[in-house]
Amino acid sequence: MSCPDCDGDLAVFAVPEPLESHAPEAALTVGLCADCLRLHSTEAPPSDGASRPLAGELPDGDAGAAVALLVGMLDSLALNRAGIVDCVEFAERSGTDVHLTLDRLQQAATAPHFDVARRQRQLDAFL
Q1: What is the pLDDT of residues 75-127, one digit of tens each?
Q2: Which terminal residue of the chain has fewer beta carbons within 10 Å of its beta carbon, N or C?
Q3: Which region, left, alpha or beta, applies to residue 123 given φ > 0 means left and ψ of -120 to 50 means alpha?
Q4: Which residues pair with 42 in a beta bridge?
């Protein structure tokens, strides 16, 4: 599946039930673009394994979905604060190092639509 904004590949995840309220358009599956890091609702089945875009940068399963949702909300920290905190806490409970994952995403994305490093510093300030 391709990103409607930049035509990049989407890493598709099933949204975990506790985070459904943070998914765009109340989607049950979301796709994070490997190029621009935009999050989109989708009806595509979740992508698994090494063939999934961002396979080396994002964890699998629910933890990956939590990070994808988090990244989708980083363009507006003030409006999405509660959702961001929920996603970070969920990912960390699942054993994911969110900051390391964001570092990896920053290196992997070719044209992110926001400054990942700047958002990460801002995220540190309120977590």
Answers
A1: 888 899 999 999 999 999 999 999 999 999 988 888 999 888 899 888 888 77
A2: C
A3: alpha
A4: 29
